[in-house]
Structures are given as C-alpha cells and as structure tokens.
C-alpha cells in the first residue's frame, strides 16, 4: 500500500475517531477501507432538498455537499454530480444493492453539476440551479392509490478518486421522497402525501413505507407544525381548535380532549374518503383554511381576531349570550377555504326575539377584491368582535386609508360591500350613497332600522346559515364591476 494511501487512511481514521470517539476503531487496514468508504459516503449529503412536491416543466434547485471534500483535496479536480429521478421501487433496489444499472423514472434537464470549492468554509458542494423535470414515468397503478400518493426520490451520485486514481469513491445519496404533479390542482393532495411521510416515517425505513394509521395526538402535532409553518405564525392551533378538528375528523360531538387521545386516524380518513355529506376530504378542508389564512388573514389570526375553528352551533351558543351586533369569524364547514361572519341581531319578524345570522362565506376571490377588515368596516350592523371588543379597536388599523386626492383629474371610485337587509335605508334611493360614497366613511355605528327587514322566507338570508346569498352578492359584484370602469364624464373631460 502506498505511503499516500496510508497517510490518507490515517487522516480519515483520525477523523472517524474524533467523530465517533470511543467507538473502538482499530487500525486494521482491511476494516478501515470499508469504514472509510462508508464514512465518505455518509458525508455526501443534501444541503438543500429539492421541493417535495415537484411539478413537471417547472424550475427547481437543490444543493449537495461533500463534507470531507476539502480534506481529501478532491477540489483540485472537482467531481461532477448527476441527479436522476427514481421510483420507490428503484430506490428500494438501490439500497439493497440489487442492481447498479442506471435506472431512472423520468428525465431531468440540467441534471449535471460540477462541485465548487468554497475556500472560506472549506466546503465542496454542487448547486443545481436550473433543473426541471421534463418527463415522468409512473409505475402501474396499485389498487386505490392515486398519482399523488406515488413517491419518487432524486438520486444524486458522484465519483472521484484520491491519491492518483488509486482509490475511487462512488458516492450516492437520496433526497426526501418527492411527489410529482403535472397540474397545480394536484398540489393539495400531493402535500398531504408529503406531510404524512415527513411526520410519520420511521428512521431507517425501507423506502418509503409509512404507517397506515397514526394516533390522533400525533397527527395534531403534525397539523400544528404545518399550520404554523404555512401561515408563518407563532400562534398555532389551540386545544379547542384541535378538539374542533377531531370532531370534524371523527364526526364526533365530544368536547373532551381526553376522548380523542387514543383514537387513530387512517390515511384513508385523512385524505381519501370525503367527510360525511361533503365532496372533499379532511385534509382538503384543513389545507383550504391554511391557504386562506396565509394569503389574507394572517394579521387577524396573529391578533387572535379569528376564532375560526368553531362550528355553527357553538357560534350560535356563544353569540346568543352577547349584546346585539356582536360577531365572530369562523371557517366555513361547507366550503373549502371559506370564512364566514356570524352575528347576533334582533329577529325582524318577531319583535323581541334575537337570532344568529351567518353571512355567505368569503373566499380568496372575495378578499382579492376587498379585504376582510374593509368588509367588516362596511357592515355597520357589526359592532363588537366576540366577546366584547369594539370592532374598530381590533380592525381599524387594517382599514384601507381614505383615498388621496384625485390624480390627473381622475376621481378614484371605491368599492364597498352591503348586505341590503342590514343596510340603513337611505331616504333618497337615487343617491344610493352606500355604493357611491367617494370618501372613506369612518365606521360610524348607525342605528339599525330593524322595521324594514324583508318578509320572512327571503331566500338570501337564512338564520340557519347554510343558505344562499348568491343573488345579493351578484348584485354587489355587479356594482363592483361598474365602479371599476371610469365614469362617462371623466372620459369626456380629461383626455389630454
Ligand atoms: C447509463 O446512462 C448513460 C446515459 O444516461 C448511457 O450512456 C449508458 O450507456 C447507460 N449505462 C447502462 C449500463 O445502461
Ligand atoms: C435553464 O434551463 C432552461 C431549459 O433547459 C434553459 O432554456 C435556460 O437557458 C436555463 N437557464 C439558465 C440560467 O441556465
Ligand atoms: C387509552 O389507552 C390507555 C392504554 O391503552 C388506557 O389506559 C386508557 O384508559 C385509554 N383512554 C381512553 C380515554 O380510552
Ligand atoms: C385528490 O384526492 C381525492 C381523494 O383521493 C380525489 O378524490 C381527488 O380526485 C384528488 N384530486 C386531484 C385534483 O387529484
Ligand atoms: C364539490 O362540489 C362543488 C359543486 O357541488 C364543486 O364546485 C367543487 O369543485 C367540488 N369540490 C371538490 C373538491 O371536488
Ligand atoms: C337586543 O335586541 C332585543 C330585541 O329587540 C332586545 O330585546 C334586547 O334588549 C337587545 N339586547 C341588547 C343587549 O341590546
């Protein structure tokens, strides 16, 4: 054995000693070759994982690093790293050393990358900046499994020699499992597969086996972590929120967290079977809530202004004990990614009787037209956020500031929302200031004209909540559309 190799081995052994102090590695050359090879392999790591939901024809990145690269002096002749996508079966075979053929399950563009040496940190790494998955070959469908339940992995491999080609190292490493999608609509199903895998895979498993069912508290932990990460909030899911989710998941009415401690949830209950009476799964509902909160409700969630995970009956009970005009925000049970306002007010048809109303749920589409805070500001019949905070105290800092002066002679219109049944009537219908008011009106709480409610049986408002406000909202949207167009007079007078 050459002097150089001996030197190399000694250095590696020292390194191993320092890492596994007390492990008892003796300087038996034969053993050392094996140990050193394994050691080198185990230092070929993924620094930045590729995205676990991988969309075809979409650019993605990844970084792999050889921890001992600097020590081995391989940077003098930097090795190339190649990335390939392989199936779960191929990964299994690879780990069993069953076949060393270059199998792949698809084609990745720009999948070769030369390692770069970073002097300051002494690290050797390959940064794949511009990969994209051009084609994917799926395995034959197994039973009920859908394409978004199929897992692949990215294999990174490289080869380099040290000591003048006398010792050749082949290093390989596998990414976390990835789910390949071809369309954005598959994203939430794919995310469910990834969540379940990341949360519940046992260390050292055969690729990519996961338990078919998990204890409810374990799932709660995973959902909470996911929620905080997605919404980017420190405010996670409370015990009450989790009880609400358990009730939804198991169609149960128990409010005692202890009752769910021993319950298990199967993958199928999580994201295969629809919730009773719905056409979406438990996960799809939860994911919809996360998406909506992330995009439009984050500050309000952080402020604790959104109770959210409350069912209709609970909302009713909570509000009935509060003064008229008290409202709360809850996620819609019937619609994915919807949030509704529930409020307590007098029943127009029975003097002295109070009831809880539910507004048709808002979705992302609505909030891209006008924000939640502005919508709450528009609705003068909403006075106190449950339990008793004046609404302006909670929401006014998010109201869109009054419009600035006209620009270039144009006056900017503003879109406002009304629920006609709860709008203070205007003595002159032609003026219709609710829609046309150009100045942002401060949220003044006007007295309610309850006497002018429409007769009972109006299809647009229904005290039970699962009603249809479509007609009303259509009118409102129509007005919104109109207001987006510049007015006649503006065109004629202002053209330069
Ligand atoms: C492996 O793939 C490369 C190109 O991707 C090809 O040139 C080579 O012949 C393949 N080797 C085997 C053993 O299939
Ligand atoms: C990234 O890859 C695409 C497709 O192969 C190619 O058209 C593009 O020029 C590449 N961009 C860079 C910055 O390398
Ligand atoms: C949960 O399981 C443990 C042990 O299996 C048992 O002692 C306990 O009574 C169970 N709790 C409930 C609420 O079923
Ligand atoms: C998502 O998964 C559910 C349940 O398996 C299925 O019914 C639905 O079609 C899937 N949706 C998409 C867009 O793949
Ligand atoms: C559920 O059904 C409604 C219409 O009944 C449809 O608009 C919606 O896309 C469906 N949702 C899913 C997840 O299939
Ligand atoms: C709410 O309205 C009802 C019916 O008009 C009335 O009797 C009651 O006093 C009001 N309650 C509060 C707290 O304003």
Q: Can you characterise this structure?
A:
The protein has 496 residues and is α+β, with helices and mostly antiparallel strands. The chain has a domain at 1-210: Sandwich (Immunoglobulin-like), CATH 2.60.40.630. Helices cover 32% and strands 20% of the residues. The chain contains 15 helices and 18 strands. It has helices at residues 3-19, 29-42, 88-95, 187-200, 216-231, 239-250, 267-271, 282-302, 312-320, 364-369, 372-378, 391-395, 433-436, 470-484, 488-494; strands at residues 44-48, 53-55, 59-66, 80-87, 106-109, 112-114, 116-118, 123-136, 152-162, 167-174, 179-181, 213-215, 264-266, 326-331, 339-346, 354-358, 384-385, 389-390. The strands form 5 sheets. Strands 1, 3, 5, 7 and 8 form a 5-stranded antiparallel sheet that branches. Strand 14 and strand 15 (339-346) form a beta hairpin. Helix 1 (3-19) packs across helix 2. It is elongated, with a radius of gyration of 31 Å. Mean pLDDT is 78; it is low at 20-32 and 425-496.
